[in-house]
Amino acid sequence: MTTDPPTTELPVAGAPVAVLTAGGHDLCTPLGFTRSAPEGAAGLSWQGDRWAVGDRPLDAPLGAGEVAALRPLRALHVGWPEEPSGDAMTTIVDLAGAGVPLTSGPAPSWVRDADPRLADLVAGWAPELDGEMPAKPGSPAAAVSVADLRREEHSVRLRRHALRAKGLARVLPSVTVVMATRRPHFLRGALEQMAAQRHVDLQVIVALHGVPLAEVREAVEGLPLPLTVLEEDARAPFGEVLNRAAARAEGDVLAKWDDDDWYGPEHLADLLLARAYSGGDVVGMAQEFFYLEPLNVTIRRVDYSSEVWSDHVAGGTVLIGRELFHEVGGFGPNGPGEDAHLLRAVGAAGGSIYRTHGLGYVLRRSVGAEHTWQLPLAHFLRVAAHQWRGFRPSSILEGARHSGGTRVILEGS
Fold it and tell me: 0.90 exceeded by the pTM?
């Protein structure tokens, strides 16, 4: 029987904590975010010198324990004070950086003056307008609602903005993307997605696995990318091809890219943020959205949780420090399973693996022979929490296109 790669969610004890210091500030992180909130929304009110949830005051600065206590809530409705007062904005930014879903009516002028982007984000989402109730406590993974997805998308946008506002991403490592391909028809689309990446200093190394450069010269020209193209023998094992590409890397960290998948424009920026707030040696994403090309169906699975320590991330999203990559021997030389080999090697060396959200990533499943990780399409239908006709990623993917060039119609748009 064919099964998914094993996954273990590791305890936080001994791992980097959920509060860190960046830019001289303590800040809470998304560690421990929960997709489905069993409780309803609560009010967040200003009590003269601090915020309170109901009748429970919050400390300033906010602590990880207080954030953990808020995780079961669907949202916090912010009741803004009419005038600026004390550290009112500091706690709101801390909550946003932790990914706590915040909502409010129109913000007063002092909030807009302090942080117009945050004011727009908080006022721009309302849980009661999502159209569905959250999943009931104790319900199976398949009961997680689309409304929960909209809530998580809002959380991702809040945390991106707030963590950068607190200085977490002020200095980011340079990134080398490594990709091996034997399918020239996917190459241009993959490179265009790399060129669209935001907030990242990027180098790209592409290994043509049995594909002559002359066949793809037009696809690799004219893009605003520092790009190196290698020609590799078709008989070489896939892992060895990736490792030879990685040997040419100059970036501080390496990121693996799969030629046929879809990546949002902040894919690498999200991984770098997660690396910064988790301290993980390897960071990757949950394998959550799949496009089943022969069926023209998109499915979402939610059995791989996010914002957790784990031993498994989606292979096409692995991000690892360049020095550690070489220390543990790189990708497995013989496929399939070159990604899993690397993750096992990191674990054996005592390294940590952190899994962040997978909303800006979609895996393509075509006929089984085209993938090193082979599972029947029926398997994906069995594990799906959601299923849509056509190509329907999360809105975090931001207007990606399928290979035929048709613009995506986002669910709910």
Answer: no
What residue has token string 């954030």? 67
Answer left, alpha or beta for residue 327, where phi above 0 means left and psi between -120 and 50 means alpha. alpha
| Nearest CA-CA partner of 29 in 285, 307, 396, 311 | 307
Phi then psi for 42, rounded to 5 degrees? -130, 160
Angle at the Cα of 160 (from 158 to 161), degrees rounded to 5? 70
Distance CA 259, CA 183 (A): 8
Beta bridge partners of 53: 44, 56
- For the chain, first and last CA: distance in Å? 39
Tell which residue, 37, 106, 87, 96, has the closest CA to residue 67. Answer: 96
Digit-coded pLDDT (tens) for 332-359: 987 678 999 999 999 999 999 999 999 9
d(CA 117, CA 158): 9
The token pair at 46 is 């200003």
In sequence order, what E strands does 80-221 have? Answer: 102-103, 175-181, 202-209
Helix then strand count (H, E) for the chain reads 12, 21
| Tokens representing residue 319 in the block | 């991000």
Whole-number pLDDT of residue 400: 63
User: b/e for 122-137, b at 16 or more Cβ within 10 A?
Assistant: bbebebeebeeebbee
What 3-state DSSP class applies to 413?
coil
Residue 277 · residue 365 · CB < 8 Å: no
Predicted local distance difference test score (pLDDT) of residue 375: 65
Angstrom distance (rounded) from CA 18 to CA 336: 35
Structure-token pair, residue 181: 């391909």
| Whole-number pLDDT of residue 169 | 82
